[in-house]
From TrEMBL:
This is Candidate beta-galactosidase Glycoside hydrolase family 2. It is an enzyme of class 3 (hydrolase). Residues 1-23 form the signal peptide. Residues 117-210 form the Glycosyl hydrolases family 2 sugar binding domain. The lineage of its organism: Bacteria, Pseudomonadati, Bacteroidota, Flavobacteriia, Flavobacteriales. Keywords: Glycosidase, Hydrolase, Signal. It comes from Flavobacterium johnsoniae (strain ATCC 17061 / DSM 2064 / JCM 8514 / BCRC 14874 / CCUG 350202 / NBRC 14942 / NCIMB 11054 / UW101) (Cytophaga johnsonae). Residues 627-683 form the DUF4982 domain. Pfam families: DUF4982, Glyco_hydro2_C5, Glyco_hydro_2, Glyco_hydro_2_C, Glyco_hydro_2_N. One of its GO terms (biological process) is carbohydrate metabolic process. SUPFAM superfamilies: (Trans)glycosidases, beta-Galactosidase/glucuronidase domain, Galactose-binding domain-like.
Length: 939
């Protein structure tokens, strides 16, 4: 083994050589994002006719290899399918309905909607001849759910989980030097969670190319031991050999710091694994004076793993990692790098306003920044493995993470999921704890729970001994899982006696994995059950649940509890407790689904954050309520706060730790002002002012956006003539955009049934009652003829292929729901003859200029209801007896253009998520509403 340090010059040269080699051989491993240009269509859960006849064939894809049929077949004609880019969530695109799922936010897709539960995706890619000999794989970060994947008609496998990443080696099936087809059939008919989960390919997809000898998928594991000023890094790498090479390879491990300086390296000659085997190799490296990964300074390093064979670099694999220590102490709580850190956490699901689960990477950063801004330092991925980019954002921004697997059990289904999550994620420094389950009511309090936890816990340790394991427990903290779990996860104070449990298990550290579940609607200060609005004052929501303040005080006062995770940071779709339809999102969030803060955010900022805070609630626009006594609350971390109404003092009050202040104030328009004092000195002033009437639409880019990002989160609001934000405005705003597109709109109203997205509707209309007549000559008619009515018979039935007529005329019908001139209607013809002439309602149609088998049908020749199509064609001939000739004439596609994007403001705000076009210099978003001055945003 050779070890080299940066200070030694000769070894520096060695580094340079290897880095140069690295640059030259970059093509040895390629990871190509293939999110763009997919085709999509709904299939059907059980009606194979509507599922494009998939799996109807005499031989199925399970009986004979390569026999993927229907859309799974390589040559399936998908020209009429909708074009889209990933990430995609088809659930969020649907309407809401009372018959939808409560837990999934009442969208008309998935469970209970067989025609909206199967999504087919198809994509064509070219793979050059020069890739022969490489291992080609398709890598999915996650598909919801139960996905079957085909490549050139070959079935690759089924992934049940909607949350695991997976990849398939397709090297053997590739058409080198030509076109290849990837097909995914996602089946979202079952729910894995009791919260909104979206549907479809909602995470990234990659094409990956490697040498036969390569770092295996998720094949690195980096741990570190810190002694004094040095970190000893253990870099374990799994290398897979999918080739016949026998002999030695060199493994070069190099550490780079955040400024790309090489700071440590080691190389070693080893025997390559045998054919189709994976072997593990471990190297030790030393990093002097490491910059530790911390919440405030999330320092990261990069390990570059290279494999060298016969003096040539054949693989180059990068792993981001951090150096830090973590420790739970049953007396003193959690320690990061030896320093106590109280966990100020939130639970979150992964959907967002307007876009469902299809979050562009930028939105992950946006959300984590919002949580940090609130003073939060920890995030629990409830209740499933997250998107890789979420963890990347947590690593880079400094947010601790509990990573959670979906289901408890000791079988392959459960343990394999856990293993894959851990192997994928164990290099992220942000992850400080694995959670192997949540509220498994059936087993929580009994011996089965104990047994299952013991297995899962030990199994987790065998994959990553460096992090502890927890389970979120809710039904009493007395026996079962709570007796054996390493870190006790208390779900809610009201669910048991935390102190009593702790007294019994003094050596078991603990944290509140869920606390809160309070109800609040942003900007609402009087509960209105008829409207499904919950007031935003932090009050005890239900007899056995506690307010955020009560919860935080409990955890803050107990050093042995490592901290708490609020249910939840953001509102999410589904679980609209305490209401039901027509509420479609939760009320639990500290922020709404867009990330607009509810007032509790300022309570948390006061006691979780580090900056001085002063916040008055409610707003001061209560026209018609003059003289009514209002509850005025102030959230602040000042020592004292004085409140004034129209310059008249309402008294100065002392703030208690982790508390808030209250006044009763008779409403009178004007200015409510708070002054915050620290050590007797004025430090902050805050006002709530009665506004004038609405005048302008204001658009602004949220400050949590990533600089120069292509995806922008825009806030729409309305201001009065003085530019004051109007907290009660609920106007509907219409948007238009140039140089980009809108991805989704939202406003945080849990009871809004407005559309999240305005996208063109693509519908496919079948040609039915397809009949034929023989033609006398091979000359095809150029004018529509009157064909004898009695001569029509079912097309292609009993066709004698050895004695076909010189030509045939076919007739079919298709139904149009309407014949709006705005619709774009096309006939995608599939060859049923050598030559063909097409007539629609008796009018001859010429093929389009872009595609000789596509006919654009103008509304002037179409009608609402039944339309007829005639195709005169010279027949296709069989070459071999067993040839199967196409008898499907094709399909009619109707594109109904979407209406303009629009959204009502909800208590003053709406959010628009936009994506800048790659090539555009500028994106311009305009916002209109009757009677208001147009808002324009240029970026
Ligand atoms: C918990 C559960 C969460 C959520 C929450 C709502 O019991 O773990 O997923 O359902 O209740 O209060």
């Amino acid at each position: 083994m050779k070890i080299f340090y940066v200070k030694r010059i000769f070894l520096c040269i060695l580094f340079l050589v290897s880095v140069l080699a690295l640059a030259q051989n970059k093509s040895e491993r390629e990871l190509i994002l293939i999110d763009n240009d997919w085709r999509f269509s709904f299939g059907h859960l059980y009606d194979t006719e509507k599922d494009f006849k998939h799996a109807e064939g005499y031989f199925s894809y399970l009986t004979k290899t390569g026999f993927g049929d229907g859309p799974a077949a390589k040559d399936f004609d998908d020209r009429a399918w909708r074009k889209l880019d990933l990430p995609h969530d088809w659930a969020v695109e649907q309407e809401f309905s009372e018959s939808g799922s409560f837990s999934h936010g009442f969208k008309t897709s998935g469970k209970g909607f067989p025609e909206k539960s199967i999504g087919w995706y198809r994509k064509k890619i070219t793979i050059p001849e020069t890739d022969k000999g490489k291992i080609i794989s398709i890598k999915f970060d996650g598909v919801f759910r139960n996905s079957k994947v085909f490549f050139n008609g070959y079935y690759l496998g089924t992934e049940q989980s909607g949350y695991n990443g997976f990849e398939y080696d397709v090297s053997a099936y590739v058409n080198y030097g030509g076109e290849n087809t990837i097909v995914v059939r996602a089946d979202a008919s079952m729910e894995e969670g009791w919260f909104y989960e979206g549907a479809g390919i909602y995470r990234h997809v990659y094409l990956q190319k490697t040498n036969p000898i390569h770092v295996a998928a998720n094949g690195t594991y980096i741990t570190s031991e810190i002694t004094n000023t040095t970190a000893e890094i253990t870099a374990e790498v799994s290398i897979e050999n999918k080739g016949n090479y026998k002999g030695s390879v060199e493994i070069i491990q190099t550490v780079f710091d955040a400024s790309n300086q090489q700071i440590a390296g080691v190389s070693e000659n080893v025997n390559a694994p045998e054919f189709y085997k994976t072997d593990k190799y471990t190297s030790k490296l030393q990093v002097n004076n490491p910059l530790l990964w911390d919440i405030d300074s999330p320092n990261l390093y990069r390990l570059v793993t290279q494999i060298k064979q016969n003096e040539k670099i054949i693989d180059n694999y990068e792993t981001s990692f951090g150096i830090r220590t973590i420790k739970f102490d049953s007396e003193k709580g959690f320690f990061l790098n030896g320093k106590p850190v109280k966990l100020k956490g939130t639970n979150n699901h992964q959907d967002h306003a307007g876009i469902g689960t299809a979050l562009p990477d930028e939105i992950q950063y946006y959300r984590i920044k919002k949580l940090k801004e609130m003073g939060s330092n920890a995030y629990r991925c409830s209740h499933h493995p997250p998107t890789p980019e979420l963890l990347k954002a947590c690593d880079e921004l400094g947010m601790l993470v509990i990573n959670e697997t979906r289901l408890m059990g000791i079988n392959d289904y459960h343990l394999n999921d856990l293993k894959r999550m851990m192997e994928r994620d164990r290099n992220h420094p942000s992850i400080f704890c694995w959670s192997v389950g949540n509220e498994e009511w059936n087993i929580e309090g009994n011996i089965v729970g104990e047994r299952v936890t013991n297995v899962m816990q030990d199994f987790a340790k065998s994959i990553d001994p460096t992090r502890p394991v927890t389970v979120g427990i809710s039904s009493g903290f007395k026996s079962g899982i709570s007796s054996v779990v390493e870190i006790m996860g208390y779900n809610y104070l009201g669910n048991g006696d935390i102190d009593a449990h702790r007294n019994q298990f003094k050596n078991q550290p603990g944290m509140g994995t869920e606390e809160g579940s309070t109800f609040a609607t942003r900007g609402i200060y009087f509960t209105d059950d008829a409207k499904h609005y919950q007031s935003a004052y932090d009050r005890k929501p239900r007899p056995t649940f506690y307010s955020i303040e009560e919860g935080w005080k409990f955890y803050a006062e107990r050093p042995y509890l490592a901290g708490m995770f609020i249910w939840t940071g953001f509102d999410y779709r589904g679980e609209p407790t305490p209401y039901g339809w027509p509420s479609v999102t939760s009320y639990f969030g500290m922020m709404d689904v867009c990330g607009f803060p509810k007032d509790n955010v300022f309570y948390l900022k006061s006691w979780w954050g580090t900056q001085p805070v002063l916040h008055i609630m409610p707003h001061w626009n209560w026209s018609g309520m003059e003289g009514k006594e209002m509850d005025v609350w102030v959230h602040s971390n000042c020592d004292e706060v004085q409140l004034f109404l129209n310059k008249k003092s309402l008294g100065k009050k002392k703030m208690e730790l982790n508390s808030h202040l209250e006044w009763k104030v008779k409403y009178m328009p004007g200015t409510l002002e708070a002054i915050g004092y620290k050590n007797g000195k004025k430090v902050l002033t805050e006002i709530q002012k009665t506004t004038e009437k609405a005048q302008n639409i204001k658009l602004s880019i949220d400050k949590e956006n990533i600089p120069n990002s292509k995806v922008l989160v825009v806030t729409a609001e309305v201001t009065d003539k003085n530019g004051l934000h109007i907290p009660t405005s609920n106007e509907e705003i219409t948007f238009s955009i140039k140089g980009g597109k809108i991805l989704g709109v939202g406003n945080g109203d849990p009871a809004s049934l407005e559309k999240d997205q305005f996208i063109d509707a693509v519908s496919l209309v079948q040609i039915t009652n397809f009949q034929e007549q023989k033609g006398l000559t091979a000359d095809l008619p150029q004018e529509f003829q009157n064909y004898p009515e009695n001569d029509w018979k079912t097309a292609f039935r009993d066709r004698d292929y050895k004695n076909q007529a010189p030509s045939y005329v076919y007739k079919g019908e298709f139904d149009l729901k309407n014949n709006s001139a705005l619709n774009k209607v096309s006939f995608f013809y599939k060859k049923i003859g050598v030559e063909a002439v097409v007539f629609i309602n008796g009018n001859k149609i010429n093929p389009s200029s872009e595609d000789s088998q596509k006919y654009i049908l103008d509304s002037s020749i179409l009608k609402e209801g039944k339309n007829t199509i005639h195709i005169a064609a010279t027949p296709l001939q069989k070459i071999k007896d067993w040839d199967v000739l196409n008898i499907d004439p094709g399909i009619i596609q109707v594109i109904t253009p979407a209406e303009s994007w629009k959204r009502k403001l909800f208590n003053g705000y709406a959010q628009i998520i936009i994506q800048k076009e790659e090539s555009a210099d500028e994106v311009v978003l305009s916002a209109f509403a009757k009677g208001l001055k147009t808002g324009i945003l240029k970026k």
